[in-house]
Design brief:
The chain has 258 residues and is an alpha/beta fold. The protein has one domain: 3-Layer(aba) Sandwich (Rossmann fold), CATH 3.40.50.720. It has 9 helices and 7 strands, in the order H-E-H-E-H-E-H-E-H-E-H-E-H-H-H-E. It has a 7-stranded parallel sheet, with helices on both faces. Helix 4 runs parallel beside helix 5 and helix 5 packs parallel to helix 6. It starts with a helix and ends in a 7-residue tail after the last strand.
């Protein structure tokens, strides 16, 4: 790898990055990070209002920013978004496939409608986005997809039966897509966050006892921040990861080491 290549590993000048779930704590942090490294950013979230300030911030950074109010369970809307991105920006270079949700309940209390809702967003929706963008990347014979999995893909955390099942599915889906699309120059990987301070976890982590119990199980002794995830996503979306595909990189303070 020559010196020029090393210097440009994390330079997305004139590259186009789609981020689903961009209005959340992690998604917005990632959007800002990619814009900092000169990417054009496509913000996708079912809640358009959550994207207003972020859109303005990225444009003030001098980057092109497109915003789409799309629910990932709406396949027609996904296809429309991908078509418009192609029309307006040309290529799709990176997909951060991040949109997700959780319902925290004991398994005996979880209603099947709730199970369906979690799987519809976290697994079906993530596949629908990956498939639509994957068609573009396979045709252009280049692209990076980074799905969001979770430590719950490999740990049997209580009260997360639907979430864990969906994220286990994401991990396996990542492997299959990586296998099928590798001949076309498309890398598919995943990031598996541990416990992170986000809007989704704020109610749980607001309880001092729960927060202390969770932190005690993490070798690094603390719960993560959204910023702790940035390096993993940037790395897997960069040329530094050109020979990596089908992998899940856990960013969890060591939670999965034992």
């Amino acid at each position: 790898m020559n010196e020029l290549m090393v210097g440009r590993l994390f330079d997305w000048t004139d590259k186009n990055v789609i981020i689903t779930g961009a209005g959340g704590s992690i998604g917005s942090t990632l959007a800002h990070a990619f814009a900092t490294y000169q990417a054009n950013v496509v913000l996708v979230d079912k809640n358009a209002e959550s994207l207003t300030n972020l859109h303005r911030m990225i444009e003030e950074m001098g980057r092109t920013c497109l915003t789409f109010a799309v629910d990932v369970t709406d396949v027609e809307a996904i296809h429309g978004m991908v078509h418009e991105v192609q029309e307006r920006l040309g290529s799709i270079d990176v997909l951060i496939n991040h949109a997700g949700m959780n319902i925290r309940k004991q398994a005996l209390d979880l209603e099947l409608a709730e199970w369906d809702r979690v799987l519809s967003v976290n697994l079906r929706g993530m596949f629908a986005v990956a498939q639509a963008v994957g068609r573009v990347m396979v045709a252009q014979r280049a692209g990076k997809i980074v799905n969001t999995a979770s430590v719950s893909a490999v740990r049997g955390h209580k009260h997360l039966v639907a979430y864990a099942a969906s994220k286990g599915g994401v991990q396996q889906m990542t492997k299959v897509l990586a296998h099928e699309w590798a001949p076309y120059g498309v890398n598919v990987n995943a990031v598996g966050p541990g416990y992170i301070y986000t809007h989704q976890t704020e109610d749980l982590l607001a309880d001092p006892a729960a927060r202390q119990s969770i932190a005690a199980k993490i070798p690094m002794g603390r719960i993560g921040e959204p910023a702790d995830l940035v390096g993993a996503y940037l790395f897997l979306a960069s040329p530094a990861a050109n020979y990596i595909t089908g992998q899940t990189l856990f960013v969890d303070g060591g939670r999965t080491v034992d």
